[in-house]
Every structure is written in structure tokens, then in C-alpha cells.
Amino acid sequence: IIKHSPNNNLRAGNSSFGDSSSPRLHASTFENDMVGYNFEQEKMLSQLTSGSTQMEVISVTGMGGIGKSTFAKKLFSHPSVLSFFDICGWVTVSEDYSYRKMLLGLLKDANIGMEEELDKKSDSNLAVCLKQSLMSRRYLIVVDDIWSKKAWDDIRLCLPDDDKRSRVLLTTRDVEVAQYASSPKDPFQMHLLDTDDSWNLFYQKALAEKGFPIEFEDVGKEVAKNCKGLPLMISVVAKVLSSKRTLEEWRKVAESVSSLANVDAYQQCSGE
To answer: Domain residue spans in the chain?
Structure first.
């Protein structure tokens, strides 16, 4: 959690809960680069920092690897957001969800109570502590990669609504979870990148300021196209190619990358 103290110093933390033993590719692996969403970003920033005084939930949904976490991260770190909210917190829920770990993580990040004391409290007492710490504050909580309505119900009970313009930004692959959390408002649906934005992202990751000859661009465009508009896949492949210096190596990747763009197989390994 980021707490805005009177002297404007910030204390930052990040809570991530789930099966840490399984290898997963997250958007957070890469820098906060985002292409193709300038209009949507401005609209979302407006929703976060204006409008109703009631606490609102904004859901972002889409397939794995499409950039939900990167989009949320871009909004979360925007100067207008950091200056607007008293408290900003981020929790990654994941499929293997632990309610207690979520509570402990947020409380510890917020420096509320000693760790040894918190560990002795029951789940219900931890939830009360968290809710009280957010009371009368304007907060933004990002709930990233949530998989179930049950997990959202648990988290929602800890979030007070006292007309401070607090917001929750939620990301999920499950459209039903997104609709459930943000009802009656519709969730924001992420879209695949078009050809131009795919190439721009690939160029930024693999070729910009790296001194590659112009011949590499043709191969790069083929690779970007074969990534089927998935930003995380483009970033992964571009990162690999940025360290390879021969056209032969690039062409080998170009020949094989289209098979990696099989959406079902990709979603199983991406975990975005």
C-alpha cells in the first residue's frame, strides 16, 4: 500500500498471493509500457478521480496476456491518481486465493500493527482492522487477477464506503466476475492490438536504440503479426530477440512463433 503522509513522503508495498511455486509470466515483468489505449486511459483516469462521491468499482476484463495488469499498473502509477487518493494499495489475488494472506499483506504494507500481533488475530479481527484503517480515507485499491465472485465478496466486506470518492480497480479474465463486481456499470473490455500497435510495441521492446540493421525490421514485423495482438506475447518474444544479433536467429523465431500464438495454449502459460 502507498500511504500519503503529511510530508508527502510515500511508503510503497506490493502484496501478491497465489501459488508462487508455478512459473507465471506477469505483465509486471516488464516496464509500464502501454500502446493503443491512450483514449481509454484518459477516460479511465476521469472515472477514478471524478464522479460520484460513493465508492465505485471499475472492472477490466479480457483474456490472459492481453494487458489487463499493465493497464491497471499504468493507471495506478499516474501522477493524477497518486495525488488524488490518500491511500493506494495493490493486491494480486490469483486463482489460488488466500483470504488471510490478503488481509495480512495489506495490513503489513500499511504498517498497521506489529507483524507478530497481527499473526495472532483471527480473520474476522484482521478484516475489522483493515476496514478501520481505510475508514474516512479516500482510497484506491487495485484487485488484480481475481478469479471468483467469492473472493470479491470477501474483499468487498473490508472496504468502507463513506462518501470519500474511493475507488476499486479490478482485473479479471472472467466476464461474469467483472460484471458482478462493477454492477450496475459495465466492465471495460480489453481488445487485441491492431497491426500498427503490435509493431510499435515490438519495435519499442526489440529494436529501439539497439542498433539493429534495417533488414531486421521486415522479420520483426512478421513476428509481431504472428503474435496475434497479444501484448504480453509480443513483449516476451521481443525481449528474447533483442539479445540475438543475426538474421538467421530472428528468422528461426519468426518461423516458430505463430504456433505459440495458439490462444488456448498461451493462456495456460501466461497467467497475466
So the answer is: 37-189, 195-259
